[in-house]
Amino acid sequence: MPQRPSFPSVTRKSFLRGMAAAGAAPLLPVAAAEAAVPVRRSDFPLLHDGTAVDVFVDAADDPAVIRAAGDLQADLERVGGVRPRLLHTVPPRAELLVLVGTIGASPVIDRLIGQRRLDVSRVKGRWEASVTQVVDRPLPGVGRALVIAGSDRRGTVYGVYDTSERIGVSPWYWWADVPVARRDTVTVPAGPFVRREPAVRYRGIFINDEQNLTTWSHRTQEPDKHIGPRTYERVFELLLRLKANYLWPAMHPYSDFFNKHRENPELADRYGIVVGSSHPEAMLRNGVHEWEPWAEEHRTEDGTLPLYDYTVNPSVISAYWRARARENAAYESSWTIGMRGLHDSALETQHATTVPEKVLVMNDIIADQRRILAEEVGPAAAPQIFIPYKEVLELYNAGVQVPDDVTLIWPDDNHGNMRQLPNDAERRRPGGNGIYYHLSYWGRPRSYLWLDTTQLSKVWQELRRVHEHQADRMWIFNVGDIKSIETGLSFCLDMAWDVDRWGPGDVEDFLVEWAGRQFGRRYGSEIAAIRTEYYRLAAQRRPEFIDKAVFSTVHHGDEAGRRMTAYEQLLDRARRLGSKLPEAYRDAYYELVEYPVHGAWLMNLKYYWADRNALAVRQGRGAGTNRFADLAEAAHAEEQAITRRYNTEIAGGKWDGIVNPYPSQIPKAPGRPAVTRVPRQETSGLGLASEGNETGADRPLSFSSYTRDRRFVDVFNTGFLPLEWRAEPSAPWIRLSTTGGELTDQVRVWAEIDWPRVPEGTHRPTLTFTGAGRSIQVPLLVVDDGERARRRARGFVEAHGYVSIDAAHFDREVPRGGARWRIVRGLGRRTAAVEAVPTTARPVTEDLTARSPELRYRVRFATAGTFPVTVFRLPSLDERGKRRLAVGLDDQPPTVLSGQAIATGNRGDAWARNVEEGVEKLTARVTVSAPGEHVLRVFMVDPGMAVDQIVIDTGGLAGGYLAPPESYRRD
User: Fold this and answer.
1) pLDDT (tens digit, 9 = 90+) per residue, 884-926?
2) Which residue of 7, 358, 585, 766 has the fewest C-beta atoms within 10 A of its own C-beta?
3) Secretion signal: which residues (predicted)?
4) What is the mean pLDDT of residues 862-879?
5) Which CATH architecture has domain 208-502?
């Protein structure tokens, strides 16, 4: 692979901003009401007064370039309503012309280079690079030309599509119905603009678990196929517009395998897409569909079907691979070597039962495949890749010999956490390293195929770590059905092109820019804020992972209810913004913004009401029990309704079948939660449960002058007949949201303290609830240290029997030994997390207080004692190492905490819990010698550790799924 230039590159971000400064019109799609950008005399008009500039591409250029030039022709028509001519011979006279060509394949481009009219010094010989520049009098009879020249065929193609995006044609114009704003005049700046080679050489997707895509394709694209050439043409175009170049095609039983339709590989080559295959599909063979017919034609001597087992039938399997190598030798392909079982199952080896024996078998398999490729494909058999996925990783680590020119593709744990990254020796291999990363997944412990729910800052953190470990040859992203992953995929491919484009503090800026390109710049910031909050809530628990009794309905102000309030506010925000958009943008907005928010809210909402229903049964409620059951089922019905709308109404029914939260093949999907109803009884009765109690009021309502919380009491009817009730506080400084009335099912009463009226000290007042001939008292614990103490407090203050800390709110960060902690915005369950970097730093295992980078938090304790401190770290793995950090208080020796380092692939164990919850809770104990101010210290042991929250339980911490609300603090 050519070396990347040593001088700073013009990032795509700065390129777009530079064009904005130069007056490009428009860089970001402009909604109908937005003003046009002024035209500068130096700009090049592609469309002017209803006339489009013709596009020239030499007929001798690569078919991929000629085809992309045709897309530019179509894009200019989309913008201006007029279709330019696509020329293959230079016109005798033209005032303006677009010249598209590849260095070494276009005589016109080569002539301009030879005449020193076109500077390609930073492009020539590079991988997929290009330059765009206006050249005056480039050819006899041509006044000015916009020249798009690529270092190779895809470099030219990307230059073409950059121009299309610049004039307002989104890569998602078809796949997400992003409209193209119409204009009579469109210009681009004179340039030159150099698009350097990408950070990652091969960048692409795996269409996987594609049941919905197959259903949609069969219904709307190709009724006689189950994903065929017509669908793949759309996929190829999308990939190129996103600056990708690589595909693992659909491979499941319900889809047609890629090579079934011979037009597929031919089309891919014509588009310039490199086609490979996934970890169970060695040598471009789809075992799900192709092995059984092959075995039928190659029965053994005794007439039985040969097994897909290299220790039993090596010659039959070798011939099976050879046939595909010969058949696809002419295409630009990626060859997966090694072997797993059929259809994503483990390697079968009847005559090799131990790991060392299986290693030898794998070595033989690789040698055989390499021989086949050398004989059938020759030097063009590149790249070759080896994917140590699941059980194959164990064999690789046990000694499988992968030739140095083969690219190692490191998989994540299927949930966005890299399992293992290359060591020093592997980084030196000429074949390099890549990754296989999931944005969508089917399997253990739970599947997530429905929505794009992986937090972008999490993706950024892992991909940065990957690139720092020099895994930069190939990045493949599992995108499921493609639809719903639009935003995440765009971000991943942006990073693959320019990994330095976004830093730890500005991932949301990607969303601002990306949303602005789809919907107009005026809406970019608000859509970015909506998506950021959507990802944050998904980081707490993916909507696909929701289940009964996950979030607490009784602790921390009803943490489940607070989450639902956040979702409801988010949906309201999304709807209000959607109502402001021009009508043409409504379909795209529904697909990219509103439906994901609405669907995630409803998935959570129905389980929230089901949990309230189950709690109501335990509490002995009457009418309220059935009310909660009705609400749960109504939320489920609404979820089905919005999905029907997506499939049958949006874009005129274009996406029929593409969205389904519950495809029949998906395991462990949340569905319709069971609810309980109670028979109506003509009775009434007063019952209550105060916050922190499932029933009754044994745990007092806790109030602190620092946190100034509000607390709730659920007052309910144990029957079905209305009753009159009232509430009375024992102190005049207790405020209630309501003090009585008629009660049919239930009411939530909120209690707050009027702090200026409270005497300093500790108080134990009560609330008295009466009704239906019954009186119930609710105890309160009110601690008022006074306003002066509140103003003078520094750091985090203990209250309610705990201290809750957001890790990004440290008092001081102490770098040591070339390593440090940095804040990553938008990462974790709140607003930011901290990460130990560089991720390639060496572990610090001795003398931590002097050698390890450190975070310090000031904490004011009200009590003394030995208390558990729990660190909420974001899961990360290292199957050849450890995942450790350390915590300590003041000058006490720190305690090293070890996190889960291995992905087991099981259900119900530590790894499964971590990926379901998005955090791992590591607990040590610290001793507070006396009340007052102390310093909590967090040390890096292994690099790349990310810490989200820290909770110290001083004796009052209530149960809950999330960390409690952050403690009061002053800097």
Assistant:
1) 999 999 999 999 999 999 999 999 999 999 999 999 999 999 9
2) 7
3) 1-35
4) 97
5) Alpha-Beta Barrel (3.20)
Cis peptide bond N-terminal to 445, omega within 30 = yes
CATH architecture of 793-970: Sandwich (2.60)
The CATH 1.20.58.2150 domain(s) of the chain lie at 531-653
Question: What is residue 553's predicted lDDT score, i.e. its pLDDT?
Answer: 98
Under 8 Å between Cβ of 100 and 148: yes
| Per-residue pLDDT at 14 | 39
Is CATH 1.20.58.2150 the classification given to domain 531-653? yes
Rounded CA separation 217/232 (Å): 10
pLDDT at 668: 62
Strand-pairing partners, residue 407, are 385
> Residue 607 is encoded by which pair of tokens?
């389980």
> Using CA atoms, how far apart are residues 537 and 826, in angstroms rounded to an integer?
11
Residue 75 pLDDT greater than 60, yes or no: yes
Tokens for 155, please give them.
């470099």
- Full strand arrangement of the beta sheet holding 335-337: 274-275, 246-248, 202-207, 474-480, 433-438, 407-411, 384-386, 335-337
Q: Residue 555 and residue 549: Cα distance in Å, rounded? A: 12
Phi-psi region of 319 (alpha: psi -120 to 50; beta: other; left: phi over 0): alpha
What kind and span of H or E run contains 599? helix 595-619
Mean pLDDT over all residues of the chain?
Answer: 94
Structure tokens at 899: 């996190």
Any idea which architecture 44-195 has in CATH? 2-Layer Sandwich (3.30)
| Rounded CA separation 243/232 (Å) | 16
Q: Which residues lie closer than 8 Å to 583 by C-beta, 6 or more apart?
A: none
SS3 of 256, please? Answer: coil
Place 667 in a pLDDT band, splitting at 50, 70 and 90: low
Please name the amino acid found at residue 637.
Answer: A
Say which residues have a Cβ less than 8 Å from residue 149's Cβ, sequence separation at least 6. 99, 101, 102, 103, 106, 109, 112, 113, 118, 120, 123, 130, 131, 132, 133, 156, 159
* pLDDT at 325 exceeding the cut of 60: yes
Instruction: Judge whether 945 and 883 are in contact, CB under 8 Å.
Output: yes
Q: Would you say 616 and 716 are in contact if contact means Cβ atoms under 8 Å apart?
A: yes
Query: Tokens for 105?
Result: 């394949």
Contacts 24+ apart (CB under 8 A), 109-117: 109/58, 109/147, 109/149, 112/138, 112/147, 112/149, 113/149
E strand or H helix at 229, and its extent? helix 229-241
What is the average pLDDT across 661-666?
A: 77
pLDDT one-digit tens code per residue, 504-557 = 999 999 999 999 999 999 999 999 999 999 999 999 999 999 999 999 999 999
| 177 within 8 A of 654, measured Cβ to Cβ | yes
Q: Which fold has domain 686-789?
A: Immunoglobulin-like (2.60.40)
pLDDT band per the 50, 70, 90 thresholds, residue 22: very low
Q: In the predicted model, is pLDDT for residue 456 greater than 90?
A: yes
> Which residues of the chain are in CATH 3.20.20.520 domains?
208-502
Every domain range in the chain assigned CATH 2.60.40.10: 686-789
Sign of CA pseudo-dihedral 787, 789, 793, 797? negative
β pairing state of 384-386 and 335-337 = parallel
Q: Does 36 score more than 50 pLDDT?
A: no
State mean pLDDT over 170-176.
98
pLDDT reading at 109 higher than 80: yes
Q: What mean pLDDT is predicted for residues 301-319?
A: 95
Averaged pLDDT, 710-722: 98
Domain with CATH 3.30.379.10 in the chain: 44-195
**730/340 Cα distance (integer angstroms):** 71
Average pLDDT over residues 53-66: 97
